[in-house]
Design goal:
The protein is α+β, with helices and mostly antiparallel strands. The chain has a single domain, classed as Alpha-Beta Plaits (2-Layer Sandwich). The chain has four helices and eight strands. An eight-stranded antiparallel β-barrel has the order 1-3-2-8-5-7-6-4, surrounded by four helices. The radius of gyration is 16 Å and the shape is globular. It starts with 8 loop residues before the first strand and ends with a strand. The model has no long low-confidence stretch (mean pLDDT 91).
């Protein structure tokens, strides 16, 4: 019996290699009804996550999607030699209006999650950070023509936050780092996976 595949909304971060496949994917997503927003971003990986994604690149297409099933098909059709990431958001921790345009998205992973109280604690701490517009909890899937050397062990405990700010990406990155430290002080191990600085709004 085939397993029922649940569909989620979320974010996809596809390697942009300035080649034919990347350009085709960009054009396809620009016209796709499944894509709500499309950005051109710079991706920076933390020292903790680099060993797992040694084939990472600098530039990515970052899209907010409605249906993860469609995204799986897109990446299978446009698979490349650099890893692409899909973050399915299974639980919205919160979403609200804040001042400024989204210019930064930070992705974390939780090493240990005991129960819902831990997640509530994280949500409450993120709510105190006034530049955080949205925070979601979910899982991560990767696509690459070359199999990874190591399996990333925390794919089921991913936290994605959107930050809206008029300040520089460097300044926002420090702001996110402070946010992460606030969570860790409470005894919850939240580690940065990747930081995405938005360079251009494509859709």
């Amino acid at each position: 019996m085939s397993e029922l595949q649940l569909s989620f909304s979320g974010y996809v971060c596809a390697s942009y290699l300035h080649n034919h496949e990347s350009i085709k994917l960009k054009e396809f997503w620009t016209n796709s009804k499944n894509i709500e927003k499309l950005f051109f971003v710079t991706g920076t990986f933390s020292n903790e996550s680099k060993p797992y994604f040694s084939d990472s690149t600098n530039h990515y297409l970052l899209a907010k999607f409605k249906d993860s099933g469609e995204i799986s098909k897109d990446l299978s059709n446009h698979n490349q030699e650099k890893t692409s990431f899909v973050f399915n958001i299974k639980d919205d921790l919160f979403q609200r209006e804040v001042q400024g345009e989204i210019n930064f998205i930070s992705v974390y992973y939780l090493e240990y999650v005991e129960d819902d109280e831990d997640l509530q604690e994280i949500a409450n701490l993120l709510l105190k950070r006034e530049k955080v517009e949205r925070a979601g909890l979910g899982d991560m899937h990767t696509y690459c023509l070359i199999p990874p050397k190591f399996t990333f062990p925390y794919s089921n405990n991913i936290v994605v936050i959107e930050v809206a700010s008029e300040k520089s990406h460097q300044s926002v990155k420090k702001y996110c780092e402070q946010t992460r430290r606030d969570v860790n002080r409470k005894g919850l191990t939240m580690t940065n996976l990747m930081s995405l600085s938005i360079l251009d709004h494509l859709k």
